Amino acid sequence: MDGTLLDGNGQLPEQFADVASRATAAGVTLAPASGRQLATLQRMFPESSTFLAENGTVVMYEGRIVETTAIAAADYQAILDAAGTLDVAHTVLACTPHTAFVRPDQLDLAAVEVSKYYASVTPVDDLRTIDEPIIKVAVHCAAGAEEHLYPTFLNAVGDLNVAVSGAVWMDVMSPLGNKGRGLATLAAAAGVELSRTAAFGDFLNDYELLHTAGTAVAMANAHPRLKEIADLIAPPNTEHGVIQVLDQWLP
Description:
- Keywords: Hydrolase.
- By secondary structure, this protein is of the alpha/beta class.
- The chain folds into two domains: 16-68 and 177-249, 3-Layer(aba) Sandwich (Rossmann fold); 73-173, Hypothetical Protein, Haloacid Dehalogenase-like Hydrolase, Chain: A, domain 2 (2-Layer Sandwich).
- The protein has helices spanning 16-25, 38-44, 73-83, 104-107, 111-117, 145-148, 150-157, 179-190, 207-212, 224-229, 241-249, and strands spanning 51-53, 58-61, 64-68, 91-95, 100-102, 121-123, 136-140, 161-164, 169-173, 198-201, 215-219, 232-234.
- The strands form three sheets. It has a six-stranded mixed beta sheet, with helices on both faces. Strands 1-2-3 form a three-stranded antiparallel beta sheet, with helices on both faces. A three-stranded parallel beta sheet has the order 10-11-12.
- Strand 8 and strand 9 form a beta hairpin.
- Helix 3 (73-83) runs antiparallel to helix 7 (150-157).
- The protein is globular, with a radius of gyration of 17 Å.
C-alpha cells in the first residue's frame, strides 16, 4: 500500500473510486493486499469485501475469511525470545485475524505508527499469555528495520518467513504465510487462473506476491529485488502509478 497505491502523503488517489467502479463493471476484482490488519483495510476500503491482509496470512473473499495461516506455538515463543535480545528501542505486536496485542509500555514508543496500520489494538501485559492463534508478529523499530531487526530475526528464526515490510517495520510469519500464497488462495476461491491475475508491489514483503501473479508490476520506486522479477515497471506511487496502469488496462 505505502509506496504502491497510496500517494506520497499516504492517501488514496482521488481517481481510485472511478477506477474501482470501472473494474467492477468489467468483472475485475481489485483486492487490496497489505501487511495492514484486516480491520484497517476494511476501514480504508469500505466498498470492498475482498482483501489480502496481514501479508497474506488473512484472506477474505466477498466478505468471508477463506484462509488464515497461523504461526506454530513453539515458533511464536521463539520469535518473542529473539525480540528479547534486541538492544534497540522497538515495539512488538502479536497479530490475530481480528486484533493486535501489544504491551502498553511498548505501544507508547510507536503509537502514531501503530495507529496507521492497526485499527484494532488490544493492550496486554505479557505477550506470552495470549491463547489465540497468532498469524503474524510485527516489530517496529524507528532506527530502521532492515538494519536493526532483520539480522537478529533471520539468525534466530530464519526457518520462518521473516520479511522487511517497510523502512521501520518487519514481520515474521509462518513459512507458508505470504502474499503469494494469499493470492493463490484468493484466485482459487474466485475460480480464476493465476495466469489471469496481476499484482503491484514496491517492497520485500511483496516479493512472493509478484512472483506468483500472472503479471508482476513493480513500482519505479520499488526495491531492486522486485524490479528483477517484474514484467512491467509502473510509474512511482507519487505519480499514481497504479492508477495509470489500471487506467490503461480497464475499458
